[in-house]
Specification:
heterodimer; A: 612 residues; mainly alpha; ABC transporter involved in vitamin B12 uptake, BtuC; 2 domains; two-stranded antiparallel sheet; two-stranded antiparallel ribbon; 25 helices; 4 strands; 74% helix; B: 246 residues; alpha/beta; Rossmann fold; six-stranded mixed beta sheet; four-stranded antiparallel beta sheet; 10 strands; binds adenosine-5'-triphosphate; binds magnesium ion
Chain lengths: 612, 246
């Protein structure tokens, strides 16, 4: 009995910083409609800054509290800088681009933190006056936990007062409900957005700083906390403060008790709750349903059949690829295999994003299911390479079939979050189900069959399978199935009104994209000889998005170009010390400068030439 | 026996009864106009019949098939075509492709994953476009068409599966008067040729009184009058509530 009380108190204590991060994310989304991926990085920054300042000041209790406050305010200012330099330019861009640009900020801050504070985990200080423990029902609970439990409702109250009782807060709430109306009232919207960003980032920084004595600071904080914050905000309802509070408490309890009941599935549990909320009550516990505004913005450009010119380019390219091993047998072939796999992966995501019109922020899940599928088939059923290679994609397809059923019921940011949640579930299972997946250590020793073991054979095998996969996706795009899919994207109500079962087609497309991603994943396993949970982590999903974006979402060959350029750049840059910094900067630049992707430039150029 | 039987149809948005206990029938090949002031519930009624909205009460039977509760795509397959007040078309596709897609759906070819779609049903699609006077613009993108042209494309799309009932929500809105009269004449001609029943709404009373076989008048979601154009025009209630200004 007493252990339950203790766990529940521990859960409540952890809810404090969860609430602070989530409420900041929620307020920012409510007003600006931007889902800020970098919010977790602000949290991490808060933790590091507080640690660093405390090293400097190190003067008793006062030193700690000054560090916390200064760290939080500094993070707020960093938030303002990010808003001013980047987000302000992309408030009107599609959700996907906003997510990617803020992910660029994540990468930049990650490497900046690494550069300033190094890779070591930083232990949090003891807080003078709160460093003891209190005996509760026969167990010791740290005093600092009690402090956190006490201030959480106070913080909620303070925020409630701010938003209900001050003129500024009322304006923010009005802006959350109706942006145009507030603009019409003559409120300076730009300043309001910046102020909201300051507050939101400050709260994230405060959360990180307050968590310091409990968890310290390390370089994985950002991704870990952002995933949790997404979950909380979705459960509570985007834009709702009380919702964020309730959800933070719920998730805190879930984590505290999950450890007791399902120690291997704690993370999955959290995401499962989120997925159920999204399906039963898409607007979250206390959120308001989105008004079903028809999608704005220009229609997607026309998808053209490959012209004779492009066929003239494709044939020599393919011939060149087939002939390549005659000229070199070196590392280039290995790199080319990486490119083929990336191209298939990107093409499968593009199929979903472009013709399907569905945002996926967790496509790596299906890549990973293919990869782990192949690895487990080999490890437990001792299947030879070819059957494993051909069976594994169907495992990924099964996963996509299951998750897709839920995903085709949501749109926009909610869809992005649900896909992300599913990817995180799969990732956490691979991570925590140690006896089967090997957890962090991965699965090793997965080499190709003898006949495909040498570089050249595996090169041809990957070329063949990837080319087949990509070709099939292209055929489908221009076949009646693809027409139905594109029609459903352009206007779901028109599509339904001519007898197209929109969701069925989207569900099928989701599954097909999953199968192709799975094929890429299983090829990947045999090219590396091993598989680790990273293959389905958020960065891998983002990589695929970058490739598609680089090439242009609404172009046919764009993703292939994007995959080639990205894989090559990745290969070159990842040897540099701070390549993530560069990648992040390029990502931000790419979104801010070319919201239509590189392939989109060619498309624009062509339509300009045609119309003039 | 009538083709469409609507019984006690109701739809509430919160406290607003957008459609309130509405009953009427449409005979085979009949051209029926539904008129009423803005916000009377005409579009809501169309969306209930087409499956775009779920009704709260009532029954809608098309030749003894219950339509309420069916998804929009099933209703279409039973022979109900429609156009929207705010036009809906596939903006990233050409006019011809829009029609081809409707034909592909009609012939149950939507799941065909391999063969190129461009070759399917071109002559039929072209003939449909010819019929509504859009043949010259067949290759243009639907996303850049003029509003009146879009309405014609919608009509051609709605005709692609040889419907028994056509629902047209303000088919001529946004057109010049001459163009309106011409489009309505075309609709009536096609409907008579193929015995298609047409239920349409329209704010232009000249068009309504010239082409409709029968009228029903809606106000606040309720039917306040029904009958031949002459009898409705003479109805005192209709005079005060709707035609009062004219
Ligand atoms: N989605 C909705 N949510 C809430 N109320 C709605 C909704 N759609 C329609 N209404 C309300 O229902 C009533 C009927 O609207 P409807 O669009 O059916 O009228 P209408 O007769 O088509 O008008 P118009 O001639 O302007 O097209 C109106 O009071 C409208 O405000
Ligand atoms: Mg209407």
């Amino acid at each position: 009995m007493s252990i339950i009380l203790l766990q529940s108190l521990t859960g409540l204590a952890s809810a404090a910083s969860l609430f602070l991060v989530a409420v900041g994310l929620s307020i920012i989304f409510g007003v600006t409609r931007v889902v800020n991926f970098a919010h977790g990085s602000f949290y991490m920054l808060g933790a590091y800054l507080a640690w660093w300042l405390h090293q400097w000041l190190a003067a008793g209790a006062l030193g700690f509290w000054v560090s916390v406050v200064v760290a939080a305010v500094t993070v707020g200012l960093v938030g303002v800088l990010v808003e001013y330099l980047i987000l302000r330019r992309i408030y009107k861009a599609p959700e996907l681009f906003q997510l990617l640009a803020t992910f660029g900020v994540v990468l930049v801050i990650q490497d900046a933190v690494l550069w300033v504070w190094g890779p070591e985990d930083r232990l949090g200080p003891q807080v003078p006056g709160l460093d003891g423990a209190v005996l509760i029902a026969g167990h010791y609970l740290p005093s600092y936990d009690l402090f956190l439990i006490a201030i959480t409702p106070l913080l909620l109250l303070a925020l409630w007062w701010l938003f209900q009782r001050t003129r500024w807060g009322i304006l923010v709430r009005a802006a959350t409900q109706d942006r145009e109306m507030v603009a019409a009232l003559g409120v300076n919207q730009t300043r309001l957005f910046t102020a909201v960003f300051f507050l939101g980032s400050l709260l994230a920084g405060l959360g990180g700083a307050l968590q310091l004595p409990k968890g310290g600071a390390d370089t994985l904080l950002d991704i870990n906390i952002i995933a949790t914050a997404f979950v909380i905000v979705v459960i509570g309802g985007l834009g709702s403060i009380l919702g964020a509070f309730l959800a933070a408490v719920l998730v805190g309890q879930l984590n505290a008790f999950g450890i007791l009941v399902f120690p291997t599935l704690t993370l999955a549990l959290m995401f499962l709750v989120m997925a159920s909320v999204l399906i039963l009550r898409p607007q979250g516990l206390l959120g308001k349903p989105e008004s079903a505004a028809p999608p704005t913005g220009p229609p997607a450009p026309r998808l053209r059949l490959p012209s004779r010119l492009s066929l003239m380019l494709w044939l020599p390219l393919l011939t060149g690829l087939v002939a390549l091993p005659w000229f070199t047998q070196g590392y280039v072939l290995v790199l080319m295999v990486d490119i083929f796999i990336a191209a298939l992966f990107a093409a499968s995501l593009h199929f979903l994003l472009g013709p399907g019109g569905m945002i996926s922020f967790g496509h790596a899940a299906y890549f990973g299911l293919g990869a782990y599928g192949a690895a487990l088939l080999v490890k437990y059923l001792s299947l030879p390479m070819l059957p494993a290679l051909l069976l594994a994609p169907w495992i990924a397809g099964l996963g996509a079939l299951l998750f897709g059923w839920f995903c085709v019921r949501l749109r926009g940011v909610y869809l992005a979050m649900l896909t992300l949640a599913f990817a995180q579930i799969i990732w956490s299972v691979a991570m925590q189900w140690y006896p089967v997946t090997g957890g962090d250590d991965g699965i090793l020793g997965l080499w190709p069959a003898p006949w495909a073991a040498d570089r050249i054979s595996y090169y041809y095998l990957s070329l063949t399978l990837c080319a087949l996969g990509i070709y099939s996706l292209r055929r489908m795009m221009f076949a009646p199935f693809g027409y139905a899919l594109r029609g459903s994207r352009d206007s779901a109500r028109r599509a339904e009104a001519i007898g197209i079962a929109v969701r069925h087609h989207q569900w099928a497309a989701f599954t097909i994209a999953g199968v192709c991603a799975g094929l890429a994943g299983s090829l990947y396993v045999y090219s590396k000889g091993s598989v680790f949970p990273d293959v389905m982590a958020i960065p891998n999903s983002v990589d695929a998005l970058i490739m598609v974006l680089l090439g242009g979402v609404q172009t046919v060959s764009g993703p292939l170009l994007g995959a080639a350029v990205f894989t090559w750049l990745h290969d070159e840059l990842s040897r540099l010390d701070y390549w993530r910094f560069l990648l992040g900067l390029s990502l931000i630049g790419l979104v801010v400068l070319f919201p239509h992707g590189l392939g989109g430039i060619a498309e624009q150029w062509r339509s300009r030439r045609i119309s003039s | 026996m009538s083709l469409l039987q609507v019984q006690g149809l109701s739809k509430y948005f919160g406290a607003v009864a957008a459609v309130d206990d509405l009953s009427f029938t449409v005979a085979e090949g009949e051209i029926l106009a539904m008129i009423g002031p803005n916000g009377a519930g005409k579009s809501t009624c169309f969306n209930l019949l087409g499956g775009q909205l779920a009704a709260d009460h009532g029954s809608v039977r098309l030749a003894n098939h219950e339509l309420l509760g069916l998804p929009a795509y099933r209703i279409w397959r039973l022979g109900v075509g429609r156009t929207f007040q705010i036009t809906a078309s596939f903006g990233s596709m050409s006019v011809l492709e829009n029609i081809q897609l409707a034909l592909l759906s009609h012939h149950r070819r939507l799941w065909q994953p391999w063969r190129r779609a461009t070759g399917y049903y071109r002559p039929v699609a072209s003939a449909l476009l010819e019929q509504v006077g859009m043949a010259a613009q067949a290759e243009r993108s639907c996303g850049i068409l003029a509003y009146g042209d879009l309405k014609r494309v919608e009509l051609a799309v709605a005709l692609a599966h040889q419907p028994r009932l056509l629902l047209m929500d303000e088919p001529t809105a946004g057109m010049a008067p001459a163009e309106r009269a011409e489009l309505m004449r075309l609709v009536v001609k096609i409907a008579r040729e193929h015995t298609i029943a047409v239920l349409f709404t329209e704010h232009d009373m000249d068009v309504v009184f010239r082409h409709a076989d029968r009228l029903i008048v809606l106000d606040h979601g309720q039917m306040i009058a029904a009958g031949t154009p002459a009898s409705v025009r003479a109805d005192p209630l209709v005079q005060t509530r709707y035609l009062g200004h004219s």
